[in-house]
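User: quick one, sequence for these tokens?
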């Protein structure tokens, strides 16, 4: 009996200790956990979130806060002079991650320039002011945007953003393409806006479906996908996460014309492969049609790293590294779309939500 009591007491003590250890792991530190100035550049960090954009230092102290009036800042980007590129007002309630108004703010929060003319809507979101003509509209921007002169969106030596220059915007549009899916698509579109607020170039992902090189099973998975969400949602068949101008880079300096600084690099979440777009001409166009010559250069692999430019990585998965070991590369001339260079490895299926 004494032996049993001793065992019971010992077991209870062990369980109590394990419970204490388990409880300790549930405590998550808040604030700066570790900062070594000798190994980390003493800079600032801009945070994205609803209502306000917060700028903190490396010690976690709040340095500056901008009012976004319900916007999410997806992402927020700080430029010299204390300017902030962000989004204002609540996102499109009938869309899917569709931000409202792209805006450049000064350090005091005043609007320097803004764009929301991509889609007319019947009514504004909470707190959104009407346009001068009394109508409402949104940009439908998501995940990325850039200012001319700064393809990275953060400080880089020798790179100076043009605050009144062109703006590249990654956005959504609703289109129909039975080749991809019988339901309406939530298509990714990249457009460029000039300083007057006019769209001067567009590129629609669905128009290049055949160039992506999907296998039969992958196409079937895309066709099986269904629309989710409200009126301006749709089948999210590609889900591009980033898009930016290449900017100055060593490959172009060495004579490789594919890496022209005005070309655009992007990456798709579902497909997990980067591509280069060659705009060729930035001329006024109906925004529903891409500019001739907007062909793509696609390939499995890491993002190119131009001068002073850190690679921008979208959300990834465990299979991404494995895919990098089997490149599938195609280069096409922008105007003729003729294949001029290629290399293929074992076929690997892209990811698609079913």
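Assistant:
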């Amino acid at each position: 009996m004494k032996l049993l009591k001793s065992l019971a007491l010992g077991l209870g003590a062990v369980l109590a200790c394990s419970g204490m250890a388990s409880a300790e792991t549930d405590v998550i530190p808040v604030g700066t956990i570790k900062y070594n100035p000798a190994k980390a550049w003493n800079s600032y960090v801009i945070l994205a979130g609803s209502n306000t954009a917060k700028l903190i230092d490396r010690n976690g102290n709040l340095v500056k806060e901008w009012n976004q009036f319900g916007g999410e800042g997806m992402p927020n980007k700080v430029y010299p002079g204390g300017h902030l590129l962000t989004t204002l007002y609540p996102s499109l309630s009938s869309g899917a991650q569709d931000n409202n108004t792209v805006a450049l703010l000064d350090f005091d929060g005043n609007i320097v320039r803004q764009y929301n003319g991509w889609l007319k809507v019947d009514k504004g979101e909470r707190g959104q002011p009407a346009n001068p003509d009394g109508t409402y509209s949104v940009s439908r921007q998501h995940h990325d945007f850039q200012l001319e002169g700064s393809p990275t969106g953060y400080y880089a030596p020798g790179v100076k953003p043009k605050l009144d220059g062109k703006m590249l915007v990654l956005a959504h549009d609703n289109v129909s393409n039975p080749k991809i899916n019988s339901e309406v698509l939530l298509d990714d579109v990249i457009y460029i806006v000039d300083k007057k607020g006019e769209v001067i170039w567009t590129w629609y992902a669905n128009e290049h479906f055949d160039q992506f090189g999907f296998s039969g099973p992958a196409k079937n998975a895309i066709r099986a996908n269904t629309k989710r969400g409200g009126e301006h949602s749709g089948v999210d068949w590609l889900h591009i996460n980033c898009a930016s101008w290449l900017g100055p880079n060593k490959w172009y300096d060495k004579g490789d014309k594919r890496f022209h600084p005005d070309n655009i690099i992007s990456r798709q979440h579902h497909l997990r492969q980067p591509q280069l777009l060659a705009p060729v001409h930035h001329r006024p166009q109906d925004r529903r049609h891409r500019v001739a010559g907007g062909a793509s250069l696609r390939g499995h692999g890491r993002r190119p790293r131009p001068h002073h430019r850190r690679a921008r990585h979208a959300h990834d998965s465990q299979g991404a590294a494995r895919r990098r070991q089997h490149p599938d590369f195609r280069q096409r001339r922008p105007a003729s779309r003729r294949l001029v260079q290629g290399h293929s490895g074992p076929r690997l299926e892209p990811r698609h939500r079913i």
